[in-house]
Automatic annotation (TrEMBL):
One of the protein's GO biological processes: translation
Subunit structure, as described in the record: Part of the 30S ribosomal subunit. Contacts proteins S5 and S12.
One annotated GO molecular function: rRNA binding
UniProt xrefs under SUPFAM superfamilies: Ribosomal protein S8
Purpose of the protein: One of the primary rRNA binding proteins, it binds directly to 16S rRNA central domain where it helps coordinate assembly of the platform of the 30S subunit.
Signal peptide start-end: none
Any GO CC annotation of this UniProt entry: cytoplasm
Family membership: Belongs to the universal ribosomal protein uS8 family.
Listed InterPro entries: Ribosomal_uS8, Ribosomal_uS8_CS, Ribosomal_uS8_sf
Protein name stated in the entry: Small ribosomal subunit protein uS8
Amino acid sequence: MANTNDPISDFLTRIRNAQIAHHASVSIPGSKLKRSLAEILERYGYVAATSWRDEGPQGFLDIELKYDDEDKPMITSLKRASRPSRRRYVKVDEIPKVLNGLGIAILSTSKGLLTDKEARAANVGGELLCEVY
């Protein structure tokens, strides 16, 4: 297993690569943050299902990928916004609308991981982790 300094980028890249290869599912080394990210993707219909396997020192997150009728992935784009070398923090009025509201931006806030719509409703800003559409 490769050592990575940015687990969120690794998470997004594994999903992106699995969809390009048309895999049915992908297994990712787990953490609470990755689990929350996967639950948000499942809640908004970008992935079919997520499950947790408690194996090894940190566990694994199994994500069942979702494709449309034409066998195209439901996720068109996964973009990492904030990086360890360049954090991107946004205030409530600076939270971007991804694809005019068709996509979602995921933020790490004081109230946990929230989508852009949830963060605006809760009136909180935070670190802009990624954009999905």
